[in-house]
Amino acid sequence: MKTISIIGILLIVIGIAAFAYQGITYTTQEKVVDLGPLQMTAEKTRTIPLPPIMGAIALAGGVVLLIVGKKKA
């Protein structure tokens, strides 16, 4: 397989994942209280949104790379 085809397939997978998940969610721990031996932490969930246009661009770019890869072969 050519490098262009592999990159095209990866972009298609990334585009489909961006449409399916709409964002990346992760959890962080933050100190709320720190009084000597007494420490309290809180878990906060944060989300990095992935706009649908980003998924569409990745999907379209992957398809274009696959087509270009097939023509060169």
Account of the protein in words:
This is DUF3185 domain-containing protein. Keywords: Membrane, Transmembrane, Transmembrane helix. The chain crosses the membrane at residues 7-28, 48-68. By secondary structure, this protein is α+β, with helices and mostly antiparallel strands. It has one domain (3-72). 55% of the residues lie in helices and 34% in strands. It is built from 2 helices and 2 strands. The protein has a two-stranded antiparallel ribbon. Strand 1 (23-35) and strand 2 form a beta hairpin. Helix 1 (3-21) runs antiparallel to helix 2. The longest helix has 21 residues, at 52-72. The radius of gyration is 20 Å and the shape is elongated. The protein starts with a helix and ends with a helix.
Shape: elongated
Quickly count the domains. 1
Q: Termini, distance in Å?
A: 10 Å
- If you average the pLDDT, what whole number results? 88
Number of helices: 2
Structural class: alpha+beta
Largest sheet: 2 strands, antiparallel
The total beta strand count reads: 2
Strand content: 25-35%
Order of helices and strands: HEEH
The percentage helix is 40-55%
In spatial order, strands of the major sheet run: 1-2
Keywords: Membrane, Transmembrane, Transmembrane helix
Protein name: DUF3185 domain-containing protein
Organism: Desulfomicrobium norvegicum (strain DSM 1741 / NCIMB 8310) (Desulfovibrio baculatus (strain Norway 4))
Transmembrane segments: 7-28, 48-68
